[in-house]
Design a protein that fits this description.
The protein has 172 residues and is an alpha+beta fold. It is built from 3 helices and 6 strands, in the order H-E-E-E-E-E-E-H-H.
């Protein structure tokens, strides 16, 4: 290998800048387009069923009010629930939020299906007894969409970087 000329070194620096800025543009595009779209897909999946099908506890709830939502479960209803647990008998009534596919009123059968522990709170999801279970095949389009969004945001990164960075070899 011979010595590099000044133009060769300049072109090498240019290519490094294009690669660096291409990555920056890709990360910005994914942060502004891909991540929000991924969150929308994740949160809207609950419209097709609960994230688990195993009931932890069952009971009855008296619904006081319901709200409609665009993402997640279509309806969340404020209710007072009484849990029927086998070894301990009926528990005292508690105030809960019930997730439902339709607007509720009166007394309904409910199930506690999943509990998650977060750093700031412990949350258990309460569903109506007729709330559907999540079919596992619905995760496939979500995974494909996430990979597709990542690819779509990677492709324009380098061309955008070339638009904003001046090529030293093309002086004129």
């Amino acid at each position: 290998m011979g010595r590099k000329t000044g133009t060769g070194r300049a072109v090498e620096r240019y290519q490094r800048r294009v690669h660096t800025w291409g990555f920056v543009f890709m990360a910005l595009l994914y942060a502004t387009i891909g991540l929000p779209a991924t969150f929308v897909v994740f949160f809207s999946l609950e419209r097709f069923g609960a994230d688990t099908d195993k009931a932890i506890a069952t009971g009855t709830a008296t619904v006081t009010s319901c709200e409609h939502h665009a993402l997640g479960t279509p309806y969340t209803c404020a209710a007072t629930a009484t849990w029927h647990t086998e070894p301990f008998g009926d528990q005292p009534p508690t105030t809960v939020t019930v997730h439902s596919m339709r607007s509720l009123s009166g007394e309904v059968a409910v199930e506690e299906r999943s509990c998650r522990s977060y750093a700031y709170r412990h949350g258990c999801r309460i569903y109506t007894a007729d709330f559907p279970k999540m079919p596992g095949i619905l995760y496939l389009p979500m995974i494909i969409a996430t990979i597709g969004l990542l690819i779509v945001t990677v492709l324009p990164g380098r061309p955008l970087a070339r638009l904003f960075i001046r090529n030293p070899a093309k002086r004129g």
